[in-house]
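To close the section, here is one more complete example, presented without commentary so you can practise reading it yourself. The ligand is magnesium ion.
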Amino acid sequence: MRRVTIFGATGSIGQATIDLIARRPGDFRVVALTGGRNVAQLAEDARALNAEIAVTAHDDALPELRERLAGSRIETAAGEAALVEAAARPADWIMSGIVGAAGLVPGLAALKQGTTLALANKESLVCAGALVLAEAKAHGATLLPVDSEHSAVFQALVGEDMGAVERVILTASGGAFRDWPLEKLARATPAEAASHPNWDMGTRITIDSASLFNKALELVEAREFFDLDPGQLEVVLHPESLVHALVGFNDGALMAHVGPPDMRHAIGYALNWPERRDLPVDRLDLVAAGALTFRGPDETRHPALRLAREVMEAGGLSGAVFCAAKDAALDAFIDGRIGFLDMARVVEDVLDRTAGRLPGEMTQETVADTAALARREADAIAGTIAAA
Ligand code: NAD
Ligand code: MG
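Output:
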């Protein structure tokens, strides 16, 4: 019996993880499930999986969670400290499936118990890559990538020597707006951005896919996870979303990971690692798939990629600025305060304003302070844009 905990259990990644775990009832014992306001889902899954504890991130959601779990033996708790406490409960495998920078602190707490952390929460590595990696090392914890591109790279690297890696190519679908003219992009609505042509994901990451901020975060994530030079990382647009990433070696070989867009593959690989086991994903029919097409990204349409390169070059806490400014800009777009193209403008301005003002040392505190500073700056800039 492996003990598993799922952070962000009610989200898209969390639900896909639960789907895999529920198919093998004899193999797993569920320790903690965590979620946000969707306590109905959280309680239903906690009951179905007989979890030890269910935790909501929101204190005011606790009474409803308690009520829904009344009569069961499942413990309940709420708030940030409760999330950290849940992360410390002994588990053999923990899914980091919270969205945004909020995933960092529970992730760090999980690493402290020397467990295996399946990292869907890319923001942790973007905000505080050095800290996450150091914490994993210090406690003998294992970090496994769950982002489909990073899982693809990880799989292409099995048995290889990192010294033979020349380049890593991440593919991007281009999201909802890949064929829209630039003029139309300026007026794109959150609802339009939140509909992805190939992947079924949470709202925030889907909008980030349309702006390519998701790919921008993934560049930084790949740099941190695989310890690559920024110059070794490339992005190509691949509208079919069947090739997830490619690794180029010094003998010219290019190893591609190909499969249908279903996150249960990458989650399942991390769940079963280092083995491979049968997974309930469609098998790709290459003939039915037909042509696979690729094109270069256009940085005038996708300034997020240029900003990611600046962040990778700057290093240190610039990733925390990038992540928090992007989160704040995304909130402003979702609330209708700024337009779709304004998100990159906000993030770029925040990077400019904070450059040279960041602490040199990366600790949990400096990351939190830097993120708070970046958020304030981003909100102020978004306010100016909204007023104009
Ligand atoms: P989602 O919005 O569907 O779910 C997010 C989960 O996090 C929910 O359970 C929510 O309750 C919880 N949450 C949100 N804010 C929180 C907070 N402040 N504190 C505690 N919990 C909070 O998101 P998702 O699409 O499942 O994405 C989760 C993570 O996985 C993100 O980092 C995303 O970038 C990454 N990811 C997702 C996919 C995908 O297919 N959905 C693919 C690759 C990577
Ligand atoms: Mg991805």
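Once you have examined the tokens, check your reading against these statements. The pocket of nicotinamide-adenine-dinucleotide (ligand 1) is lined by residues 8-14, 35-36, 57, 97-100, 102, 120-123, 147-148, 199, 201-202, 204-205, 263 (CB under 6 Å). The chain is about 45% helix and 15% strand.
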